[in-house]
């Protein structure tokens, strides 16, 4: 049976990428060796790393003043590395949910943090739009998409202060003015590849100002000066991320994927808004095009809905354990077909139970 | 052509493991999903993580007072995490080479470090045997095998002070008294799996004494309390590591692999010692059974030797760029056959050039 993979992360990857990954796990480009057992100092892998770094910048349309590196530890380690590398006197954070809160908590272990806006008052169902930018912060930190609550920034704050963004769940999903940001980080496992690597892209001129001695592994400057290979990188995760970025490029780039993602989101939200049994859980203006969160108004028929989902091969639609309900994750590699299968199930379910 | 993979790391993995990894990258256990796109919270992956943690303890013959977790960042991040979690007043280190020196440098960023023994006086060609154990250190740190210089501890210091060991390059390669150690860490990419994950095994009672506020991602206690899934773990690297540990267990466990490794090392060193053209670079008593370092006495015929290696499909024999020469890495998955092919080349080369 065809499985429709709505997992919120690690999320769906393109079939072509998986086929190539599977091949390379046995025999990488006819070298007679698996990529899993090849030295990271081999010319083959050095090329993979160089391609991955270059594709990341290309898809973000960034120039030579930026560097892209692939680290380990997920966005969660970035919550600590960002302030460690950038925070000197004060950092400003916008709190839009669980991951932003985690980022704030880790930054407070490093230095002075001001929360300049928050949507906690209404359980994170919106993106704050009116707030004052500080004049004296070392950087402002935002989270572009909230996988758990299902909200997403539609436009980004204009500010002279370095803007830092956790883009783990919507990197490479839409055209963004990347050069408005001083640093962007993203765990790979939603739109970029499998778990195990984290992309960090930054303007070189923001480094070296925090004035602290850094552990080598947590030092952006050292990592980029060593070409993202200070120590053994997560070879296979970087490789599969490279394949996924190449897949975006080969199919038409960010314009192509954004159009596809818009179509998928429109399809889904149209059904959600017209279906009498379901209800979206966040403000319409803040709806995420990556993770649509919703509930069944009548909890008594949840089991029936879930059994229909299962029959159609729909996997991973459960909401995050901290909030419940449902979550339709529509990452880059999810085909429109899967959305159609889901919306058909929702329609059919309404015919039966409305 | 059959490739004989002597890479010093990431190193060779068993063919059965690679076949299964390749399958799972397409369709994991007939779920219809690739393991690369499956949620780490799926029952399937939770089982993988539980198996991996349990196999690690089983192969080390450790009981309930120990925990095994799989982190990211390689041994290089452990160089910093160990002192961050354990160093209160003073730590003692033995300096046996490049990696030990790196560990010392990172520990000094955290607190007071005493180097209690070193083999730097003779460029790390031996393991120090006579030195005094401190009475007042929080822990003593050693590096069981030195991949670059090719030395290995044959027995371990007896001490009441918690013993910490970087076993990145010889974990699971021989029977060791693991319960003599309070903490063992190992990057996966030599004897345990592919790059991208690091095993950390520790006695639970050594934690919580350093008295500092830890970043969440660098806190052993938090990581084990969250069952090694505080955040998204490096799914595929943990999975392939689990397969490799299972491969050791299924073939006869540590006794089996130790006997095989002893045989391989004996075969290689016998040839090295009897061949007039080559010379080992470290003291015989300290020779590593994982990485045998050697040189050609006559540098003028290196190209001839290397061209013969290439003809026989021997890959990865070059010494580390910092020391030169040759290095025969004989990790667990390297078959005896590959050693025979190499020693045959060495013998044939001596017939031609001696």
- Please report the first level of CATH classification, the CATH class of the largest domain in chain A: Alpha Beta
Question: How does the overall form of chain A come out from the CA principal axes?
Answer: globular
Largest interface: A-B, 67 and 67 residues
Number of separate strands of chain A: 14
Number of helices of chain A: 9
Amount of helix of chain A: 25-40%
Instruction: Find the structural class of chain A using helix and strand composition.
Output: alpha/beta
Sheet with the most strands, sense and barrel status of chain A: 7 strands, mixed
How much of the residues of chain A is beta strand, in percent?
A: 15-25%
Order of helices and strands of chain A: EHHEHEHEEEEEEEHHHEEHEEH
Return the average pLDDT of chain A rounded to an integer. 97
Poorly predicted residue ranges of chain A: none
Radius of gyration of chain A: 21 Å
Straight-line distance between termini of chain A: 29 Å
Task: Write out the strand line-up for the largest beta sheet of chain A, numbering strands in chain order.
Answer: 2-10-9-8-5-3-4
> How many domains in all of chain A?
2
What would the CATH topology of the largest domain in chain A be?
Aspartate Aminotransferase, domain 2
In quaternary terms, these chains amount to homodimer
CATH architecture level-2 label of the largest domain in chain A? 3-Layer(aba) Sandwich
- Superfamily (CATH H level) name of the largest domain in chain A: Type I PLP-dependent aspartate aminotransferase-like (Major domain)
């Amino acid at each position: 049976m065809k499985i429709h993979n709505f997992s919120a992360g690690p999320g769906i990857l393109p079939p072509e990428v998986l086929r190539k990954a599977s091949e390379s796990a046995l025999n990488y480009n006819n070298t007679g060796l698996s990529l899993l057992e090849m030295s990271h100092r081999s010319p083959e892998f050095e090329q993979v790393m160089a391609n991955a770094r270059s594709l990341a910048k290309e898809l973000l349309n960034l120039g030579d003043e930026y560097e892209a590196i692939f680290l380990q530890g997920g966005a969660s380690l970035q919550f600590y590395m960002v302030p460690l590398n950038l925070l000197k006197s004060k950092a400003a954070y916008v709190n839009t949910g669980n991951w932003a809160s985690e980022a704030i908590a880790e930054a407070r272990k490093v230095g002075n943090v001001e929360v300049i806006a928050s949507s906690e008052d209404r359980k994170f169902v919106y993106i704050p739009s009116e707030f004052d930018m500080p004049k004296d912060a070392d950087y402002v930190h935002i989270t572009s998409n909230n996988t758990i609550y299902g909200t997403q920034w539609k436009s980004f704050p204009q500010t002279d202060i370095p803007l830092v963004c956790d883009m783990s769940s919507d990197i490479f999903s839409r055209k963004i003015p990347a050069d408005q940001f001083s640093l962007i980080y993203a765990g790979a496992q939603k739109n970029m590849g499998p778990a195990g690597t984290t992309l960090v892209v930054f303007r070189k001129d923001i480094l070296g100002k925090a004035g602290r001695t850094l552990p080598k592994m947590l030092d952006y400057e050292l990592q980029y000066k060593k070409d993202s290979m200070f120590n053994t990188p997560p070879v296979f995760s970087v490789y599969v991320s490279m394949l996924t970025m190449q897949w975006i490029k080969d199919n038409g780039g960010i314009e192509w994927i954004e159009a596809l993602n818009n179509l998928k989101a429109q399809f889904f939200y149209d059904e959600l808004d017209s279906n009498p049994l379901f209800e979206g859980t966040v403000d319409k203006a803040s709806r995420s095009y990556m993770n649509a969160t919703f509930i069944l108004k009548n909890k008594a028929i949840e089991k029936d809905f879930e059994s229909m989902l299962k029959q159609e091969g729909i996997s991973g639609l459960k909401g995050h354990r901290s909030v419940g309900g449902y979550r339709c994750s529509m990452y880059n590699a999810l085909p429109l077909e899967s959305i159609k299968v889901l919306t058909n199930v929702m329609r059919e379910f309404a015919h039966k139970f409305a």
